[in-house]
Structure formats: structure tokens, C-alpha cells
Amino acid sequence: MPPTKKGKEKRAGKKKQKSVPDEEKYRKTTLEVGTLKQHLVLRRDMARQAMADSEGLKQRLAALEKELEEARGDKKDIYEEMIRRYQQLQRQTDTRIQRLEAERQNLQEQLAACQKDVQQSQADKVKTLEEKDKAIAEMQRKVDEMETEYEKILHGSLDRVLSKLQTAKFSWEKEATSVHQEYKDRLKEFGLNPLEI
């Protein structure tokens, strides 16, 4: 490609551009300006829409932040209320534990006293039973001694009574024989047979 041809082509292009009328240039420029204006209007509308959306988003963000703060405040209030209730329940539980512990200790003391009383009662009962058994054994021994003594006395008395009865029997038999003989003799005096009567 020779340089002369390039120069000629350039000149030819310049000639063609110079040949375009100004009116067409004006029309093109006007068209471009209109298009740019429409672009600007669209961009301005988009910018306004973006600004409005941005404002709405800012308001929405502010509302959400406010809600978040309120939720945080509510959460803090709830947390503090829960802590307060927990501490109150803890105090009540501690009080109840102390009361139950005191009651347990009191009941243990009562139980120990009752067990001591029961042991003492059992010891007293055993002692009383031993004393009772001793008294019964002593009384039984005395009864046995008395029985033996009474038996001796009774046998002695009966022996004396028998001896007296024997003595009396002999005397009565003698007397009865003599009375009998006397009546026999009297009956014979009257002429009666005593065997027939």
C-alpha cells in the first residue's frame, strides 16, 4: 500500500463529509440532543425513584432499628423480670429449705426423745415384769410353805381328832354296851326278848 493512496482515500472521505449538508447535521444533533434529554429524563426519574426508594428504605431501616431497639428493650425487661423472678423463687426456695431443715431437725429430736422414752418404757416394763415374777415366785413359795404348814396342821389336827374319836369311840362303845346291856336287862325283866324287837 503506497502512502499516496492513503492520502487520497483520506481526502476523498473529507470531501464526502463536507458534502453532508448542515441541516442534516443539525437534525442529527437535535436527534442526539433529544435522545440525550430522554436519557437524562429517564436517568433523573430513575435517580428520583432511587432517591425515593432510598428514602423509603431509610425509613424502613429506621423503623426496623426502632423495632429492634424496642425488642432489645423488651428482651432486657423480660430478662430482668426473669432474673427478678428467679431470685425471688431462689429466696423462697432457700426459705422453704431452711424451714424444712429446721422442721427435720425438730422431728429428729422428737424421734430421738420418743425412742429414748420407748427404751426407758421397755426397760421399766422389763424391770416391772422381773419384779412381778419375783413377787409371784415369792408369793408362790409362801403359798407352798403355807400349804405345807396347813397340811401339817391339818394332819396333826385330824390325827388328834381321830385319836380323840378313837378314845371317844371306846368310851361310847363301853357306854353304849353298858346302856345296851341295861336295856336288854330291863327288857328281860319285862319278859321280852331283845332279839325279837
Report on the structure:
With 197 residues, the protein is mainly α. It has one domain (29-189). Helix content is 94%, strand content 0%. It is built from two helices and no strands. It has helices spanning 3-19, 22-189.
Structure at a glance:
It is built from two helices and no strands. The chain has helices at residues 3-19, 22-189.
For this entry, give a set of tags.
single chain, mainly alpha, 197 residues, 94% helix
- Number of E-type strands: 0
Q: Which residues sit in consecutive blocks of at least 5 with pLDDT less than 50?
A: 1-19
Radius of gyration: 77 Å
What value does the average pLDDT take?
Answer: 83
Largest sheet: none
* Number of structural units classed as domains: 1
Structure annotation, total helices: 2
Q: What proportion strand?
A: under 5%
Q: What is the 3D form?
A: rod-shaped
Instruction: Give the end-to-end Cα distance, rounded to a whole number of Å.
Output: 218 Å
- The secondary-structure class comes to mainly alpha
Helix content: over 70%
SSE series = HH
